Amino acid sequence: MPTLMPTPGTTGWSTRDIPDQSGRVAVVTGANSGIGLVTARELARRGARVILACRSETRGREAEELIREEVPGARVEFGPLDLADLSSVRGFAAAYPAERLDLLINNAGVMALPYGTTADGFETQFGVNHLGHFALTGLLLPRLLDTPEARVVSVSSGMHAVANIDIRDLNSERRYRRWVAYGRSKSANLLFIHELARRLATAGSDIVAAAAQPGYAATNLQTAGVRLEGRRTAERIVALANRIIAQPAEAGALPTLYAATAPGVRPDSFTGPRIQGWRGPPAPSFRASWTLEDRAGKLLWAESERLTGVRYASLPT
After folding, report:
1. Counting beta carbons within 10 angstroms of the beta carbon of residue 258, is it exposed (0 to 12), middle (13 to 18) or buried (19 or more)?
2. Residues acting as catalytic residues
3. What is the DSSP string of 184-253?
4. What is the pLDDT of residues 18-27, one digit of tens each?
5. Predicted TM-score of the model (pTM)
6. pLDDT tens string 128-149
7. 203 vs 134, 153, 189, 304, CA distance in Å?
8. How far apart, in whole angstroms, are the C-alpha atoms of residue 36 and residue 285?
């Protein structure tokens, strides 16, 4: 695997190494909890204006206040965004309040849910984790292109290695297996970044499109699926594992923050925890070969444009 970024020193890269973000504007999806909340807080701590793109206004406003309490003077604001509803994605982009966009952090996601569909009829994990962010990025692309040295960071997972996408069955209509569907959606995240980076390079843009994965970090992502099914024993077991085995959300956010802010991050890189992709400071992460296939990236892109109705007209094919 090629080296995609400088190897951190023995002490590891941390939030202390985030460069000054004054004058920059960031959008963080799913910023009301977990890794998204930590990412938004640390960007605000370094001076960025951060838009908290969240589905729940109540939780988004609570996150807004929490960040202001922890970071006096923080420039944070809630923006309503439901990635499971393309009309909400379009509404968020249409109401985007800034003239520039330096960082788009595609962080929000769902994991291993019972079968369901989005407002537009897509399988929920594929619809939220990939299609919602594909549409959001495309709709905000003009702002990104007008901002020097902007970055797009998509949060994937080491679980992408569970399954490649099936271009003939993107919505898992033939057979639904929750972990396979999750793995496919995370592979789709990486294929999206791969194709976006290629198209940006062809266009001569200096936007950096990169990916990150948090390893095993304690967030509410792990318990959401079993909670929806009312499996209380399983929920308690997962919550216990989060306390004993997982690293905290603060550590899980480091690969995302590295990909978003560190100097020298290369397009189409994939950053994760150093120790077996599980925990530790940021380092190059294992990446399945299928997420680097040009043909697959182009096919997924074409289908994503068709399904969402969002065209990246300013980027050559």
Report:
1. buried
2. 182
3. HHHHHHHHHHHHHHHHHHHTT--PEEEEE---SB-STHHHHHHHHTT-HHHHHHHHHHHHHTSBPHHHHT
4. 999 999 999 9
5. 0.89
6. 999 999 999 999 999 999 999 9
7. 18, 19, 21, 20
8. 20
